[in-house]
């Protein structure tokens, strides 16, 4: 992998490009991107450090590895526009719903493909990057791409049948955590705390709690029990959450996406 090109530069692509460059796993001079809104692309290029391209064909000809980061409904048109220059290249797709089997039907012969589901915390090196087990990359190519994505978070290989649920809980999950942060900050503000302080304290609390679970490998229920003293304050809060159907609401949020 010599030159990496992003097809599309939305929020997820920005997160990845920022994370890749900040980690030092790829030189910013080797990162390129194309997006139809050139003014916005130029601003993002100045902020992140990649090289903007004026056209899709220019990007495809320049880069040996392409990241399909446009909207899923745009992919067929993108492939049609650059199909003549795609053979021989590696394509990493981060578009939801486009797995290996679907690309195999849509791509011209000679294109090697890997489906990856990332999430936005990759921007700060704390992402989750799900690699579909089925792919057509060369061994050294896949290792290079795996290492690149590993520089911005946890990389995990999943069978094709689990990419949907895996991508849902990790890709959509940050929005749910942000709702959680906002709600608890509202509670802190209600009782007199400045909002900036509330966000800082609660975000660190969530970060620390997640790191504790990862470091110890303990069941979340055990860690919860460790905070809940008999007749104490925490168990009162846990009870209130259970009365409001907290865990059921979490499960329903995933079901809503899976049944969309």
CATH topology of the largest domain: Rossmann fold
What spatial order of strands do you see in the largest sheet?
Answer: 3-2-1-4-5-6-7-8
**Ends distance:** 37 Å
Low-confidence stretches: none
Got a strand count? 8
Which shape, going by the Cα principal axes? elongated
Described by strand count, sense and barrel closure, the largest sheet is:
8 strands, mixed
> How much of the sequence is in beta strands?
5-15%
Output the number of helix runs.
11
Helix content: 40-55%
Tell me what the structure shows.
The protein is an alpha/beta fold. The chain folds into two domains: 155 residues, NAD(P)-binding Rossmann-like Domain (Rossmann fold, 3-Layer(aba) Sandwich); 85 residues, ProC C-terminal domain-like fold. Helix content is 54%, strand content 14%. The chain contains eleven helices and eight strands. Strands 3-2-1-4-5-6-7-8 form an eight-stranded mixed sheet, sandwiched between helices. Helix 6 links the parallel strand 7 and strand 8. Helix 7 crosses helix 8. The chain is elongated and about 70 Å long. The two termini are 37 Å apart. The mean pLDDT is 96.
């Amino acid at each position: 992998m010599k030159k990496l090109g992003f097809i599309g530069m939305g929020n997820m692509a920005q997160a990845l490009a920022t994370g890749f460059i900040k980690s030092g796993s790829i030189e910013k001079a080797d990162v390129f991107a194309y997006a139809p809104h050139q003014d916005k692309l130029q601003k993002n290029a100045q902020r992140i450090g990649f090289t903007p391209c004026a056209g899709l064909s220019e990007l495809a000809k320049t880069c040996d590895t392409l990241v399909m980061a446009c909207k899923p409904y745009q992919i067929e048109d993108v492939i049609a526009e650059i199909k003549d220059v795609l053979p021989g290249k590696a394509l990493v797709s981060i578009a939801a719903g486009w797995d290996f089997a679907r690309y195999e039907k849509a791509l011209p012969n000679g294109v090697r493909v890997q489906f990856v589901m990332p999430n936005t915390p990759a921007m700060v090196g704390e992402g989750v990057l799900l690699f579909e087990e089925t792919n057509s990359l060369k061994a050294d190519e896949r290792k290079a791409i795996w290492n690149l994505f590993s520089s911005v978070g946890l990389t995990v290989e999943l069978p094709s049948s689990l990419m949907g649920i895996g991508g849902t809980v990790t890709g959509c999950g940050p929005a749910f955590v942000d709702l959680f942060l906002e709600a608890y900050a509202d509670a802190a503000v209600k009782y007199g705390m400045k909002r900036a302080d509330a966000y800082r304290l609660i975000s660190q609390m969530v970060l620390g709690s997640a790191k504790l679970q990862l470091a110890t490998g303990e069941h979340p229920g055990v860690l919860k029990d460790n905070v809940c003293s008999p007749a104490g304050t925490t168990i009162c809060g846990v009870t209130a959450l259970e009365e409001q159907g907290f865990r059921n609401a979490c499960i329903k949020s995933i079901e809503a996406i899976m049944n969309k």
